[in-house]
Specification:
With 284 residues, the protein is mainly α. Helices cover 60% and strands 0% of the residues. Helix 4 runs parallel beside helix 7, helix 7 runs parallel beside helix 8 and helix 11 runs antiparallel to helix 12.
């Protein structure tokens, strides 16, 4: 329901199931989306003019991480249920979320070193590295590393991060679909440890090669391969933009939270999700 529709419904006195429960001083729209609470969550710790924007955009990214996690989890479950057409549509939505995430770096990139320095000290040990939402996305896409759950130990997000580590990834679901379609031999009867990185190797690349060499015969699987590539491509761009943004603000200084800053970001920017979808291109 749009804002205008909500307002018209409120004026009519009906049609909105929340109308009766709206507290005094609020509106159905603000109550439904918890806008008053959301807009009260910004508490700058310095007098820098740019700190409110830094906080707000950090919160926006966390909300987008949550939305992207929801979409990619849905796509994974749809693949598990052989609802490939629906999964493709869900991945289409997820791609739009990733585009917004990528653009979100623009607001950070215009911070000059002097402007960031005005409030950097108040961050203390705070770092995006500590984002449970982003770590869950990494695990959901298959970049599994149990050690990466340790920074979240003792936090409210630890259980969700560990739970994600133990769940099959989106790529696990895609490869399982290739198995069911007869393009990839089953890995074995013992079951795969979901806490480990996804299955990889020449046989996985060969399965994707078969899809790419006959896209007419494997039409939906070809669309899936390209949709997954879109996902991986956007993540690669997001990481690289993160790297360049930090270089612009910090140069080669250490990052907040004890990371190596640019050096660490440069290393992770080389990682690619779904590696066989990248390597198969050399065989075509």
């Amino acid at each position: 329901m749009t804002t205008e529709q909500t307002a018209r419904s409120a004026e009519r006195g009906g049609g909105c199931p929340l109308s009766a429960g709206v507290p005094p001083g609020s509106t159905p729209y603000a109550h439904y989306a918890r806008m008053d609470e959301l807009l009260a969550l910004q508490h700058p710790l310095s007098r820098a003019d740019t700190e409110p924007g830094f906080i707000i955009m950090s919160q926006v990214k966390e909300l987008l991480f949550k939305l992207l996690h929801t979409e990619l989890s849905t796509a994974r479950d749809q693949l598990d249920e052989d609802r490939l057409g629906e999964a493709l549509w869900t991945l289409r939505r997820a791609a739009r979320v990733q585009q917004v995430l990528l653009v979100s770096w623009e607001t950070f990139s215009v911070l000059s070193p002097a402007e960031f320095a005005e409030f950097r000290d108040v961050l203390g040990s705070a770092s995006g590295f500590q984002s449970a939402g982003y770590r869950r996305l990494e695990f959901l896409l298959g970049n599994k590393n149990p050690a990466m759950a340790e920074p979240h130990r003792g936090t409210a997000g630890h259980a969700a991060v560990v739970g994600q580590l133990r769940e099959p990834s989106l790529y696990d679901a895609a490869l399982a679909l290739l198995e069911r379609r007869g393009l990839l031999a089953p890995a074995g009867s013992g079951g795969r440890d979901a806490t480990q990185p996804y299955r990889s190797g020449p046989e996985v690349e060969a399965a994707w090669e078969a899809v790419y060499r006959d896209p007419a015969r494997h039409h939906e699987l070809h669309l899936l391969a390209e949709a997954l590539m879109d996902t991986a491509d956007q993540f690669a761009r997001w990481r690289y933009t993160h790297l360049v943004t930090v270089q612009r603000m910090l140069g080669a200084k250490p990052g907040t939270g004890g990371t190596d800053g640019v050096a660490w970001l440069a290393r992770i920017s080389e990682h690619r999700f779904f590696p066989e979808l990248w390597s198969v291109r050399s065989t075509l």
